[in-house]
Amino acid sequence: MMKRTLWIAVLVWAGSSALAQNDFRQEYALYDSLPNRARLVYGGAITPLWIDATTFYYETREAGGLSYYKVDIANKTKSVCSQEELPKPPVRVRPEQKDSIPSPDGKWVAFIQDHNLWIE
Fold this sequence. Notes:
Layout: H1 2-32, E1 49-50, E2 55-62, E3 65-72, E4 77-81, E5 100-102, E6 109-113, E7 116-119
Antiparallel strand pairs: 1-2, 2-3, 3-4, 5-6, 6-7
């Protein structure tokens, strides 16, 4: 009688644990498939984009949308700015050889090959 009760308890426990795990996997798959999860988070990590040695700007997501901030480290100030006020990224002029850049003194040439930086 004791063995029979023990077996029934083990079977009930194993069955309920398998169901709970299955429910977890279904819920995880549902939440993992949510599109654009990043837009649901406000004030997450920032990536500073440097203007010069003491000034950078960054964008952050807030409830009202994207906000842009300019930070001046020397003056210890942070100000809100519009996207139009942000500096435009510099236009890169490619040298004659594809994917190579000469050093300022002209003695060396740097290039990327197979995801490695090479200097000749």
